[in-house]
User: Which sequence fits this backbone?
């Protein structure tokens, strides 16, 4: 806003009384105390229109009197004489308060909303009547504007003082709300929180509407897209639904913020009020009382009982589904009564898409993020850095997005962890799931008479169930059996049993379980079972179940549990030896699953010494070589999936398999020392192929280290091998390693060697692998 525009706004007061009302607000914002409007009606009270006190730490309090005028003050005789008299009376006559106390004025300020000419000021300051007093000064538009800018900048915004004060404080609080603040383990840096708070990616919103077919007159329910812009214009009850972490609170707050801008409040004469369902308990769900206190809190010194009567209140109620059944019923009844009485409507968040309510309610479903929304979120979070593209690639390659709900909460947690330590998934997989379940289960309420069960006990209900499912290989349970399980768990620990309704609430509020129409219960993701089971074993069942983690390592579900288990500690040297020695390792399936699991296990144990994790790398390479010899024979078998597979494709596939399972920055040192150890061994095909697998893994975008690859290319025995240079070229061309980081001279050297073997390579690409002997010569 320009200075001229500000002058016009000051000039716009309809009368002197309106200008005085503004000055009172301005003085309060400028730290004046006991601001009194002495001249609300009738003549001035001994010249004083407003009085106020300001505190001084050294000289004590000063009482000011303000002589208030509207319009331009020039040198007119009548106007100037009136001002002189008001100044004189302000000093001569103390102000008598309602309790009879007399207040002596120390200073006087003459204020106008327009210009105060130099001539007028001169006539007043040089007046013989005022020669005994020199404690008076003048405020007019030019010197008043900087004071307003400094102390009451909200004045320039549209709307009245109440609307502006309420709006500023209300929006400020809403914009600070984020569920990740509730984390009990990971303390999130304020700067990172601010990044998340500043990001808003509008999710996909849909609503179901009944449409009538123009020809058949049949009524059908159709799902239609919706936008948050449309929400601003709705004047009916709104239900925002979606699973936990989907961003219901963010949408609710965003909508409340948009409706609480000063001009909007002032124009529409309505105020959005944010109410948290759980906090309403303190008010016994008395909406009138809680709304009154919230408005008073946010409007601060501008709160006025009469003023708020002119506004329609729109309750925004969050976390409705965290209440108990009886509380939900009570709140619904009181909410309906309040809205009917005040001709208003409500906006509410609830995990279910429908809510039992007599009146009409528009249900808006908030969907999980799709891949484009995820990419947009990450690009904004890592804005200004080169990390966004790399992180998006990591998410796609790790397939983590299929193992967790793709909600804003999930993406926020994953982004924070990656930003914190720059480690990829699955190195931080246990941390991701730990924080995710902390947020969800931290909101879950399980009652024991009048007390809530502590967080660790609530979590153990789920970890115990997950381990039971994993043990039994049964991943769904009936509601009846789940109730028996929960109550057995609680009563064994001297806690109160839960009713069926209580048990259903546990399911619905957990964010981890689902319940079908047939009352069948299960975890929403298989990964939740594996993660929660790992917690149960790590903290409570090591003696009975640790051996299962290593002996069943080639069972994918148990392997994932073992990797989660390792991630809780990040340093378990003994587990490495146990997995290598005790996990099955006798056939092709074992070799493949084993080598893959060892890659992820070595990443989860990223705080373990590289020399220990090297054992997993070497064992995995050993298994891949066993796979090579076995598959090579299978290329002769017509019944095999590998029938007629040529050698380059076989070796390229195995190289890629190792790359995919070990390409983590957490393994950079481990891979380097593994390479050095193998490179010193016999200079033969097997060791050179192992060296190639390690060096191309180091060259992947996740690590981007070309030192070992360059060293291998300099080895004559590697470059003169009939096949290996071709496999190295495959790795470059197929994008397994970072093309742009490959030195042009190295690339040229590889291509030159391949050209020399052109005829041989043609035959090796045509023939199945079994046709070549150990020296890679074609046998007749």
Assistant:
């Amino acid at each position: 806003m320009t200075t001229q525009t500000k002058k016009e706004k000051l000039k716009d007061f309809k009368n002197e009384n309106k200008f005085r009302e503004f000055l009172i607000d301005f003085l309060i914002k400028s730290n004046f105390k006991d601001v009194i409007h002495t001249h609300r009606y009738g003549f001035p009270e001994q010249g004083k229109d407003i009085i106020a006190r300001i505190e001084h730490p050294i000289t004590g309090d000063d009482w000011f009197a303000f002589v208030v005028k509207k319009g331009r003050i020039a040198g007119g005789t009548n106007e100037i004489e009136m001002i002189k008299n008001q100044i004189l009376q302000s000093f001569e006559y103390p102000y008598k308060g309602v309790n009879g106390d007399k207040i002596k004025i120390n200073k006087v300020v003459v204020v106008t909303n327009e210009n105060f000419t130099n001539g007028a000021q001169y006539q007043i300051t040089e007046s013989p009547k005022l020669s005994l007093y020199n404690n008076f000064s003048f405020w007019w538009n030019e010197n008043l504007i900087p004071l307003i800018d400094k102390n009451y900048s909200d004045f320039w915004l549209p709307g009245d003082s109440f609307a502006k004060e309420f709006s500023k404080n209300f929006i400020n609080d809403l914009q600070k709300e984020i569920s990740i603040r509730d984390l009990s383990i990971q303390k999130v840096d304020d700067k990172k929180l601010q990044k998340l708070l500043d990001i808003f990616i509008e999710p996909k919103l849909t609503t179901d509407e009944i449409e009538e077919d123009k020809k058949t007159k049949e009524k059908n329910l159709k799902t239609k897209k919706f936008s948050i812009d449309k929400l601003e214009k709705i004047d009916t009850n709104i239900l925002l639904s979606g699973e936990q972490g989907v961003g219901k609170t963010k949408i609710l707050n965003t909508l409340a913020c948009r409706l609480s801008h000063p001009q909007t409040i002032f124009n529409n004469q309505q105020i959005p009020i944010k109410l948290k369902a759980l906090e309403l308990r303190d008010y016994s769900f008395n909406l009138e009382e809680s709304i009154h206190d919230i408005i008073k809190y946010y409007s601060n010194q501008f709160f006025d009982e009469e003023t708020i009567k002119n506004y329609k209140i729109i309750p925004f109620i969050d976390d409705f589904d965290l209440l108990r059944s009886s509380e939900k019923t009570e709140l619904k009844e009181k909410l309906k009564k309040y809205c009917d009485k005040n001709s208003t409507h409500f906006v509410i968040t609830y995990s279910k898409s429908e809510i039992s309510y007599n009146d009409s309610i528009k249900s808006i479903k908030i969907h999980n993020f799709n891949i484009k929304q995820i990419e947009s979120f990450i690009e904004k979070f890592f804005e200004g850095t080169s990390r966004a593209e790399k992180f998006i690639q990591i998410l796609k390659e790790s397939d983590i997005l299929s193992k967790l709900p793709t909600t804003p909460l999930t993406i926020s947690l994953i982004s924070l962890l990656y930003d914190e330590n720059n480690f990829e998934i699955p190195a931080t997989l246990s941390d991701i799931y730990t924080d995710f379940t902390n947020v969800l289960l931290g909101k879950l309420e399980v009652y024991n008479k009048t007390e809530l069960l502590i967080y660790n006990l609530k979590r153990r209900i789920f970890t115990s169930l997950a381990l039971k499912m994993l043990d039994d290989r049964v991943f769904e349970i009936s509601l009846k059996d789940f109730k028996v399980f929960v109550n057995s768990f609680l009563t064994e620990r001297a806690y109160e049993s839960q009713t069926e309704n209580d048990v259903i609430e546990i399911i619905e509020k957990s964010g981890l379980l689902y319940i079908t129409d047939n009352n069948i219960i299960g975890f929403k993701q298989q990964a939740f079972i594996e993660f929660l089971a790992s917690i149960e074993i790590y903290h409570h069942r090591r003696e009975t179940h640790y051996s299962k983690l290593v002996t069943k390592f080639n069972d994918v579900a148990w392997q994932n549990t073992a990797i989660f288990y390792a991630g809780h500690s990040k340093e378990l040297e003994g587990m490495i030896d146990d997995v290598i020695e005790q996990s099955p390792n006798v056939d092709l399936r074992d070799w493949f699953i084993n080598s893959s699991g060892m890659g992820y296990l070595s990443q989860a144990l990223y705080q373990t010494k590289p020399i220990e994790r090297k054992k997993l790398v070497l064992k995995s390479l050993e298994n891949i070589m066993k796979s090579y010899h076995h598959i090579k024979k299978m290329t002769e078998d017509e019944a095999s999936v590998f029938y007629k597979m040529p050698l380059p494709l076989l070796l390229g596939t195995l190289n890629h398999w190792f790359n995919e399972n070990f390409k983590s920055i957490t393994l950079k040192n481990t891979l380097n020392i593994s390479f050095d150890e193998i490179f010193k061994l016999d200079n033969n095909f097997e060791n050179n192929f192992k060296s190639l697998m390690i060096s191309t893994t180091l060259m992947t975008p996740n690590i981007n280290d070309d030192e070992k690859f360059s060293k291998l290319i300099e080895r004559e025995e590697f470059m003169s091998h009939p096949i290996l240079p071709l496999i190295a070229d495959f790795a470059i061309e197929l994008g397994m390693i970072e093309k742009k980081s490959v030195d042009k001279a190295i690339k040229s050297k590889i291509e030159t060697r391949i050209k020399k073997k052109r005829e041989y390579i043609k035959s090796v690409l045509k023939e199945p692998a079994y046709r070549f002997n150990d020296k890679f010569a074609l046998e007749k």
User: Anything to note?
Assistant: The CA atoms of residues 644 and 768 lie 4 Å apart. The mean pLDDT is 88. The first strand starts at residue 33 and ends at 37. The chain has five domains: 3-156, 172-366, 371-440, 444-532, 541-771.
